[in-house]
Design brief:
The complex is a heterodimer. By secondary structure, chain A is an all-alpha fold. Chain A is 56% helix and 1% strand. Chain B is 29% helix and 21% strand. Classes of the chains: A mainly alpha, B alpha+beta. Chain A: InterPro entries: BRF2-like_C, Cyclin-like_sf, TFIIB.
Chain lengths: 365, 311
């Protein structure tokens, strides 16, 4: 009777397949790279084990299994309000976002996991951590360096403003944070920074400039301009998207009051009806929609003058021209499915002998 | 009651909402796998069954409804069965129930009689307290068995409206103008028809494709026509705070703006997936019958209204 190691006699290692072992190691490595608390690692590993046992994941490709580990880490982070974005995980795993997305959605569904929404506030703090403008460096002009606390606080306020004015719902969060960070940075020292573009700012800060950020910036400025039009002492100035930046501090301070006055916050349905109204007679008057009295708030163009515009998501303010699928016509609805099918109708879909000959010659079937 | 009933197992036909047009090859086998286990037992005791889904019975249509009841019942029970977590139970029972099949269903029969409508053809008139909005059907996916082996290369050569790239996809892609649809025709003789705006149009289109195949010289039949998925859409006409909805309906909702701008709502009864967007537009999918789409929308409308004035 020789000595047997505990792990050998209990078959601990044998119980776990090599695939599972490798997967668990990967999850643990990921947690270490992200410097997550130990409890996260345990949770992620347990999700991973549960998932792999589930019939939907048991037989998926190795590629998907690798992503599965990342998904488990991602879910764990979200459940602990640790602001990890999918973009980050995907880049760590060198994964295609579409594939990650499908694995993530399956995981959420099959394991019945409840994943809390990404906290924007936390995201702001984490994302700003990677900006390089908080410390003096050789390539950063002195007036561009900013105090981190101030910038985080102001960025949060701008992101909240964006959220209240429908700029956040349905949109990717990072570009909004980037645009908000840029505006907050500019507004803290406008004199020196107004000439700096978003692109240059991102380059200096050492962060990526996501393509939607330009559009988010534009939308934010439009909101701020509308709010500025309600501040009596600012009405004297001819505000544009450059000059309004100087007053962001004030605008944020009084934002509740300004939002109420700059936009009609009442019945969403009426607002939409008016916004999309093409001036047909008998349209319902919107509450406080003085600017809409012309009847046609020209799609795509902003109403600079006049009263408040409805507070709506941009996709409703500027509806893109879309093919209107015609409502089923009377003849369509009358179809029973049993109609006779004429020979001629079918024959139009068949090639003539000459065609076949020509096709054969061309394709050498 | 429902536990006693030994019905056929429903192989979980997972049609994700985004796959409505081009299912991958393996889907075909899953779809037709479930067709083989059609025989159902009709329960004789209705006392504990929820009949609220049935249309109102008047003197005139009473007789008609009695025959439709059975089919509706089977569908309702099948739905609830497939929703059960432990599908393995049904795998075992299938061996027992198979031999007991007494209720012939139109789908199992070899002939193809004119399809008895399972639901009323006209949309259910909304009750006075309902939304007053009727979702519009946008896409119907159906399948049919032509019941003969097909030479796809031959079809692609002789048909004008056919596309065939065997390296890319193992089926002929055929299109007709009226009803404007697309068909995937497999060498096994199975066919998928997509793009129609109503069940009847889907059936008419499928019949036309079958006729094309017949004219090309194949002994095509028209067996087991079945609507597999229906997609509808509508507009509630007010913006929706998706962040709020995902908080209050966490167990049904998935809202990941990093992935997709809409909120994915998986309704349990009826088993429909809804895509809800900030603009107030709603897409409903996963239905086998149009009543499920209407019912799902009527269920979601009051919930969405709750998020209307959240600014």
């Amino acid at each position: 009777l020789s000595e047997v190691a505990y792990s050998q006699s209990t078959g601990q290692k044998e119980q776990l397949s090599r695939c599972l072992q490798r997967g668990i190691r990967r999850v643990q490595d990921l947690c270490k790279v992200l410097q997550l608390p130990t409890v996260f690692e345990e949770t992620a590993v347990s999700y991973f084990q549960r998932a792999l046992q589930h019939p939907s994941f048991h037989l998926v490709s190795l590629e998907k299994k690798e992503l599965l580990g990342g998904c488990c880490v991602f879910v764990t982070c979200r459940q602990h309000s640790w602001p990890l974005t999918m973009g980050t995980i995907c880049s760590l795993l060198y994964a295609k976002q579409e594939l990650f997305a499908s694995v993530y959605l399956s995981l959420q569904k099959e394991l019945g996991l409840s994943v809390p929404a990404l906290s924007l506030g936390d995201l702001v703090k984490t994302h700003l951590n990677s900006f390089r403008v908080f410390q003096h460096a050789a390539d950063i002009p002195a007036p561009f360096v900013e105090d981190k606390e101030k910038m985080v606080a102001r960025t949060m306020q701008i992101v909240e403003l964006a959220s209240e004015t429908w700029l956040v719902t349905g949109r990717h969060p990072i570009p909004i944070v980037t645009a908000a960070a840029f505006l907050s940075w500019q507004s803290l020292q406008p004199a020196a920074r107004l000439t700096c573009t978003l692109a240059r700012f991102c380059k200096l800060a050492g962060v990526d400039l996501p393509p939607p950020a330009h559009l988010r910036l534009k939308e934010l400025l439009e909101i701020l301009l509308r709010m500025a039009s309600q501040l009596t002492w600012l009405r004297v100035f001819n505000m544009d998207k450059k000059t309004v930046v100087k007053h962001i501090g004030d605008l944020l301070q009084h934002r509740i009051f300004l939002l109420k006055n700059a936009f009609c916050l009442e019945d969403g349905e009426e607002q939409r009806a008016v916004a999309l109204d093409k001036g047909c007679p008998g349209s319902p008057p919107a509450a406080g929609g003085a600017a809409q009295e012309e009847g046609c708030p020209s799609e795509g163009k902003r109403q600079r003058e006049g009263g408040p515009r409805p507070l709506l998501p941009p996709c409703l303010i500027n509806p893109r021209k879309r093919l209107r699928t015609a409502a089923p016509s009377a003849s369509d609805s009358a179809i029973t499915g049993d109609e006779a099918i004429s020979d001629s109708e079918i024959e139009q879909y068949l090639r003539s002998p000459e065609e076949i000959r020509a096709f054969r010659k061309a394709k050498a079937w | 009651f429902k536990d006693d009933l030994s019905t056929s197992p429903q192989l979980f036909t997972h049609m994700s909402p985004y796959d409505v047009d081009l299912p991958i090859q393996t889907t075909e086998d899953v779809l037709f796998g479930s067709q083989l286990n059609q025989p159902k037992e009709l329960p004789t005791d209705f006392s504990s069954v929820d009949l609220s889904f049935l249309p109102d019975i008047t003197q005139d249509n009473k007789e008609q409804n009695l025959s439709e009841d059975g089919n509706e019942m089977q569908k309702e029970l099948d739905e609830s069965m497939s929703r059960n977590e432990d599908s393995s139970i049904f795998m075992d029972e299938s061996g027992l129930s198979y031999a007991d099949a007494t209720q012939p269903s139109p789908e199992a029969s070899g002939a193809c009689p004119p399809l008895t409508p399972m639901t009323p053809m006209t949309p259910v008139t909304p009750a006075s307290e309902s939304s007053g909005i009727v979702p519009q059907l946008q896409n119907i996916v159906s399948t049919v068995n032509l019941a003969c082996k097909l030479d796809l290369k031959n079809i692609a050569l002789h048909a004008r409206n056919a596309e065939y790239n065997p390296k890319r996809f193992a089926a002929v892609i055929m299109r007709i103008r009226e009803p404007r649809t697309t068909a995937l025709i497999f060498s096994s003789g199975k066919m998928v028809c997509t793009g129609a705006k109503s069940e009847e149009q889907s059936r008419l289109a499928a019949r036309k494709y079958a006729r094309v195949v017949q004219k090309l010289g194949f002994p095509a039949k028209f067996l087991d026509f079945k609507i597999q998925n229906m997609v509808g859409s509508c507009d509630v006409r007010f913006p929706i705070r998706l962040e709020g909805l995902v908080l209050t309906h966490q167990q049904f909702s998935s809202y990941e703006p990093e992935l997709f701008p809409g909120l994915i709502y998986r309704m349990v009864k009826p088993r429909i997936v809804l895509l809800i967007f900030v603009s107030g537009k709603v897409v409903l999918t996963g239905a086998k019958e149009r009543s499920e789409i209407y019912e799902a929308f009527e269920n979601i409308y009051p919930i969405l209204k709750g998020f209307k004035k959240a600014s």
